[in-house]
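Quick entry between incubations.
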Amino acid sequence: MRRTFLGLLLIPGIAIALGASVFPQVRSIELPGDNAMAELKPGPGVEVVHANCIACHSTDYIVRQPHSDAKRWEGEVKKMTGVYGAPISEADAKVIVEYLAAAYGPAQANARKETKPSKSGTKAP
Amino acid sequence: MSSHFSPKALSRRHFLSLVGGATTVAGGGLFETIRTFAAEDPILAGRPLVRYPEKTDLILLTSRPPQLETPMKYFEHAITPNEAFFVRYHTFPPPTHIDLSTWRLRLGGLVERPLELSLDDLKSEFSPTRLVAVNQCSGNSRGRSEPRVFGGQWGDGAMGNAEWTGLRLQDLLRRAGVKTGAVEIAFRGFDEPAAPTIPHFAKSLTMHMVADSPDILVAYEMNGQPLPTLNGFPARLVVPGWFSTYWVKHLAEITVLDHEFDGFWMQKAYRIPASPCGCVEPGGTAAHTVPINRMKVRSFIISPKEGARVPVGRPVVLKGIAFDAGYGIASVEISTDEGNSWRRAALGQDLGPYSFREWTAHWVPTKRGNFSLLARAVNRVGESQPFEATWNPSGYMRNVIERIQVTAV
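Done. Structure below.
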């Protein structure tokens, strides 16, 4: 908001020159930071995931994906390196796939079912 | 165009302050809010409400790049407020600082007269056109795909309906003068990916389709207001009837091509199986794919809510919305007996063929117990919704008959 205000202060001359349009010439917003409620599960290799993946996207891109085996996770990691050009070394990619398959693998697939709604406490948002 | 994003994680305290509005409504803290969503829809379980700039409390799908989902309560009305309209970006950072004194829309390529236009030019040199149209993400409801698929795990709120004001793309092309031999038109936003290896977001439409579609707009207003920054300020493409992926935000360049556009977001992403249903056997793969295009018919029951308790012997008002790709909704029917019998809902005001159409129906539960309420729409060319969800590897184009469970007491 402060930036928007500064932006408006800087341009009245321009606005007048253009015919005193009330339409602001500069739009400026600030985005909040990452979702702190979507932390990666602890586990071997989690620091490699933080170092490589979280540079480009927030953790909520990972923790909400379908629980998958190493082969499917490898496909996703290859998409990041091959398609989007993420600079991840082969050694790190291997650690990342192992972490994902362990922390978000088929064995953990029931985690989503545990979050099914309880019958009580329904309130309008 | 610079960004002011600092990628530090929110502290929990900061996060609580962000959801302050929701906290008041829900009568508790952040976790109260989360439980509220969990109770309504398991797909949304654990997702917080957040308030982004120029936005109201929306459901946080991902924060970087940002994806924000509209709570279903906003679909009780045909028009979705700008502040509640969903947000979806492919690359990060999105534009956060936009200066209209330097922004220009450029039209070039295979044209007689390349154009370079300011926002004032777009408004003053072309006649404005207004139309109401649904903007729905290709992957809306992807979280319900079974078997599950990778991608943004949306509930049903990656959609919205607004009145768009802008100039006709055809008028713009006429001004520039398209040369013979034009095959496709490419559209590019001015948002820049974080790394040069990440494909810039750009889409294309065929010249044939554009020549046939006078309703494609370069829109600079949404519900009578300038576009929210996160919905594409200062101008975005509006392709009525087609999925959002074509509605390029922060439009900067339009290029007329004498060949098929080779961009990543056309050739590799947003593709559907080439079969008539755009689907394959659940879990399967498609040998041939085509770019996703027009939307399928959908309808939603917005009220009562999932899990509601309704009194036996008294009329329950069912309300919802329906839409299609622009043929227009011919009818909406509801069933309270698993689809054995259907009866017509009353359609609300017609805001145009591309719009959400409100509908209302009445139902009197005659006995206690659990009921499924089903809604299905039929459009003016007879297209409707399937009982069983169709499936494709990317979780696109879901349009199964929706059902909610209520209990008569």
